[in-house]
Amino acid sequence: MSSSIPAQSAPSEPQTKIALESKVIAITGANRGIGLGIAECCLVNGAAKIYSIDIGETGDDFQNLSNRYPGQLFAIQADVTKEASISAAVDKIVEEAGALHGMVVNAGRTNHKSALDFTTEEIEALFSVNLFGAFYTARCAARAFIKLGIKGAIVFTASMASYRPNKRVPSTPYGASKAGIRNMTHTLAMEWAQHGIRVNSVSPGLVNTAMTYWVPQQPDWEQQLKYYGGFPRLAEVQELGGAYVYLLSDAASYTTSIDIPVNGVIGIC
Asked: Among residues 136, 206, 201, 195, which one has the least CA distance to residue 168?
């Protein structure tokens, strides 16, 4: 006796417009930095509501964006390293907004030092957020999509460090955690395709955030740029947003299990 997976029908009218009208999107770690830049791009492209799921407090940048989009940007406090905390945040979003269409798994931390110098506590702290927290977040989102009958989208924030080491300031645990994210992307995409859930990732290069303030301060930064090629600058957080918006949109209805590098061709990391 043979069994087969029921074929899914194609959308009645495949979307060609890249937009997020009427969509409710959650983004972990969006109180600032890359996450807040993604939130801005989603709002600019028509998202109905954006929820930042973050362990910290919001700041001036978050409030300024909220003022530009009144009633559309919200913050929920949660700890991504605890699945129950993320599950409660997702439940609250669904209760308030009535739906959840996309989850950007963005919360992360970094720590650059020699592999021989990492303490056990530092390694576990990094993996708890970057890898375990990412898995918990994706799983909570998938459960919500399935319960709601929504063919949702999950987009992980990986890193160019998942492809090759940062030559100047290596971080074995960070690179390994982000490589794990890309593998997770492919595997979850395979598992959850039967539910119509798409799973993809974006790999930023060097982005102008509080985590990379030291990069252009290096005395040989200009020489590095000449050597590595590509655009001779760091990316602004908003320049990453187009990749996320596409992957969250219905225009990407047949796009799953891919990673989009956004690195300006700089080979520095």
From this structure: 206
Q: What is the pLDDT of residues 190-221, one digit of tens each?
A: 999 999 999 999 998 877 766 666 666 667 77
Q: Give pLDDT tens digits for 136-188.
A: 999 999 999 999 999 999 999 999 888 888 776 778 999 999 999 999 999 99
Catalytic residue among 171, 178, 203, 249: 178
Catalytic site residue from 52, 174, 201, 203: 174
Q: Which of 87, 159, 162, 203 is catalytic?
A: 159
pTM: predicted TM-score of the whole model, two decimal places: 0.89
In sequence order, what are the residues at sequence separation of 6 or more whose Cβ sits closer than 8 angstroms to the Cβ of residue 170?
A: 112, 114, 115
Q: Would you call 178 a catalytic residue per the annotation? A: yes
Could you give the domains of the chain? 24-262 (3.40.50.720)
Which are the contacts of 2, defined by CB distance < 8 A and separation ≥ 6?
Answer: none
